[in-house]
């Protein structure tokens, strides 16, 4: 250190700066970056690893098994911490970097902060082309890291060591901004990482980051109040933004006081407990009959913290054409969708201001009574579908019910992609807020186990992650079972084996195509398809495991799993054709011309769906 400067390599300076950033979680001042998931290789092993090795006590590094799953684990951690504390994922150049692109897209779609650091080619270009470098003949500045531009909120390539002085704070500000939140990417040129520079000492001063709470424009609140006061059958849609702003309690109280039923999106499920008096179930394509009935009747829809994806809106068929929307969102883009009345602001601040401006207004009492009646019918339907039977194989619904009843209130269920999400979204009865993680914004197969690891890191004994996963997704990405055993972060993983990609087989056949290449029995094979021994596979990675022959066996195995000292995998064979009803319409592509009568019928049904769509922007 000389005077007011510190001479460090760029990699050393980057790591020292990360260590100096702090945030506040539940009143406690904690590191903003809780750790690093890393696979070292060409491009990050010689300089970045040297810097990280020296700060293991302040910024722990965890060795992943796959770059994509590391970044997915960072996503799970960010969800568990409600975007208040972050993880870093670092890779080599080339395939190590491109492995993280899918995870970056998932974080981008879900508005989740993850800092991605990949090695890059030489800024000098003297040794070009280096190993793993992809050359673009007409653009020598381009590398595979440019692929991250489309799937990150902040992107930069560090070609000079001093560039991190301006870039790192901007990356963090983006990740913590409720409106712009998403992943940030820095490509670290290999020769730049090694270069020493005299950094200003104040660059490394401890900094406390506070997540902003933008208040809404007063005029927008007044307009929102005017619209809501005219409602006879209002509905509140709670999205993920409610949870991330810490507005769950405020939304619950507001809804109960004003007599407005609350339905939840995929990201918003867990805003309320299942038995909250204002709760009316999940909405949309994997939603409940109760929520979808209320959506069809609503005259005013208050959409809080949701991006209104097609699975929420039934591809915009779930609502009356004349229904009016009030969009409460920190992001202007989301607040304005489909000609809604935008009220741009933090969910907590905005709901509180809207509540204060409503005076003594409340919706007609009969409206909440109808919501309760519809929700009671939905719960009765769930009970029927979740009740055990003498069928040869249990359904997803029955498995979900067994696991749900066994889970403690602070356990968090984690799932994504395939058939389980719909059954968990419909059938999981949340016992405590913020204990539900379903990644369906990008529907990322392979998220589940990796994200469970991220949740385990975040929970630190406050409940346990329960991963529910299908056989198809398990086969895609399971290596972090080994990571969790090595690191001592216990998960309970329930593998439902229904013989392939059963839910996409359902959609395929529903739209007129015979079962093809989805269930294993419908695939081109050289031998008779056979079931994988998932229990044996998990044991090979150091986990405890059991295969369960039925629901009673599963229930007993769950009791055993609670007491094991490491990640425990339970497998069970399940039915590939039984699903809980309640779905809304979905707009998907169906061939306009086909010789198959079944496809022709499906096309006619799809055209009917499109005629129901609410037209907006």
TrEMBL record:
Instruction: Recall the taxonomic lineage recorded for the source organism.
Output: Bacteria, Pseudomonadati, Pseudomonadota, Alphaproteobacteria, Rhodobacterales
Which family does the record assign?
Belongs to the TPP enzyme family.
Q: Which PANTHER family match?
A: 3D-(3,5_4)-TRIHYDROXYCYCLOHEXANE-1,2-DIONE HYDROLASE, THIAMINE PYROPHOSPHATE ENZYMES
MF terms in GO: acetolactate synthase activity; flavin adenine dinucleotide binding; hydrolase activity, acting on acid carbon-carbon bonds, in ketonic substances; magnesium ion binding; thiamine pyrophosphate binding
Q: Can you give the residue ranges of the Thiamine pyrophosphate enzyme central domain?
A: 225-354
Gene3D superfamilies for this protein: 3.40.50.970, TPP-binding domain
Q: Which residue ranges does the record assign to the Thiamine pyrophosphate enzyme TPP-binding domain?
A: 423-571
EC number(s) stated in the UniProt entry for this protein: 3.7.1.-
User: Mind telling me what this protein is named?
Assistant: Epi-inositol hydrolase
**What InterPro entries would the database entry show?**
DHS-like_NAD/FAD-binding_dom, Myo_inos_IolD, THDP-binding, Thiamin_PyroP_enz_cen_dom, Thiamin_PyroP_enz_TPP-bd_dom, TPP_enz, TPP_enzyme_TPP-bd
Keyword list, A-Z: Hydrolase, Thiamine pyrophosphate
Q: Name one Pfam family in it.
A: TPP_enzyme_C
Sorted alphabetically, the Gene Ontology cellular component annotations on this record are: acetolactate synthase complex
Q: Which residues form the Thiamine pyrophosphate enzyme N-terminal TPP-binding domain?
A: 36-132
- Taxonomic superkingdom: Bacteria
Q: What's one GO BP annotation on this UniProt entry?
A: inositol catabolic process
């Amino acid at each position: 250190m000389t005077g007011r400067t510190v001479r460090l390599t760029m990699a050393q300076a980057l790591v020292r700066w990360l260590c100096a950033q702090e945030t506040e979680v539940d009143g406690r001042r904690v590191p903003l970056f809780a750790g690093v998931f890393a696979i070292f290789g060409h491009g990050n092993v010689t300089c970045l690893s040297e810097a990280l090795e020296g700060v293991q006590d302040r910024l722990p590094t965890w060795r992943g098994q796959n770059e994509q799953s590391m970044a997915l684990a960072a996503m799970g951690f960010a969800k568990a911490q409600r975007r208040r504390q972050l993880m870093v994922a670092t890779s080599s150049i080339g395939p190590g970097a491109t492995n993280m692109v899918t995870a970056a897209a998932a974080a981008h779609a879900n508005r989740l902060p993850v800092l991605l650091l990949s090695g890059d080619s030489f800024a000098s270009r003297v040794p070009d082309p280096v190993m793993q470098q992809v050359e673009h003949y007409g653009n020598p500045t381009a590398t595979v890291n440019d692929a991250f531009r489309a799937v990150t909120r902040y992107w930069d390539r560090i070609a000079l060591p001093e560039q991190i002085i301006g870039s790192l704070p901007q990356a963090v500000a983006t990740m913590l901004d409720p409106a712009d939140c998403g992943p940030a990417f820095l490509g670290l040129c290999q020769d730049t990482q090694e270069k020493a520079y005299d950094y200003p000492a104040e660059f490394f001063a401890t900094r406390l980051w506070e997540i902003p709470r933008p208040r809404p424009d007063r005029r927008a609140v007044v307009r929102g109040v005017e619209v809501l006061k005219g409602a006879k059958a209002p509905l509140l849609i709670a999205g993920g933004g409610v949870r991330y702003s810490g507005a769950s309690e405020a939304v619950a109280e507001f809804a109960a006081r004003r007599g407005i039923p609350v339905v939840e999106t995929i990201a918003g499920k867990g805003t309320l407990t299942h038995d909250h008096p204002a709760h009316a179930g999940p909405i949309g394509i994997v939603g409940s009959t109760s929520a979808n009935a209320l959506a069809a009747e609503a005259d005013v829809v208050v959409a809080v913290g949701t991006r209104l994806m097609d699975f929420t809106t039934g591809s915009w068929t779930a609502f009356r054409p004349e229904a009016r929307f009030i969009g409460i969102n920190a992001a202007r883009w989301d607040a304005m969708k489909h000609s809604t009345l935008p009220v741009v602001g933090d969910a907590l601040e905005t709901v509180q201001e809207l509540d204060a401006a409503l005076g003594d207004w409340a919706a007609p009492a009969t409206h909440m009574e109808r919501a309760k009646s519809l929700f009671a019918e939905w719960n009765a339907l769930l009970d029927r579908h979740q009740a055990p039977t003498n069928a040869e194989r249990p359904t997803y619904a029955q498995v979900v019910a067994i696991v749900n009843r066994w889970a403690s209130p602070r356990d968090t269920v984690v799932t994504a992609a395939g058939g389980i999400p719909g059954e968990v979204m419909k059938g999981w009865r949340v016992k405590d807020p913020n204990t539900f993680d379903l990644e369906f914004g990008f529907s990322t197969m392979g998220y589940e186990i990796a994200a469970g690891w991220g949740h385990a890191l975040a929970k630190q004994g406050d409940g346990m992650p329960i991963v529910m996963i299908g056989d198809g997704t398990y086969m895609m990405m399971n290596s972090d079972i080994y990571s969790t055993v090595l690191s001592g972060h216990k998960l309970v993983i329930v593998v439902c084996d229904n013989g392939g990609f059963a839910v996409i087989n359902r959609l395929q056949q529903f739209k007129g195509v015979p079962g093809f290449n989805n269930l294993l029995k419908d695939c081109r094979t050289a031998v008779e398809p056979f079931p994988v021994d998932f229990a044996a596979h998990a044991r090979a990675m150091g986990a405890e495991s059991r295969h369960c022959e039925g629901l009673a066996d599963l229930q007993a195995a769950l009791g055993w799993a609670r007491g094991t000292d490491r990640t425990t995998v339970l497998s069970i064979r399940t039915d590939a054709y039984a699903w809980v009803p309640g779905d809304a319409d979905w707009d998907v592509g169906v061939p306009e011309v086909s010789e198959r009568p079944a496809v022709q019928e499906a096309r006619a049904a799809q055209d009917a769906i499109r005629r129901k769509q609410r037209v907006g922007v």
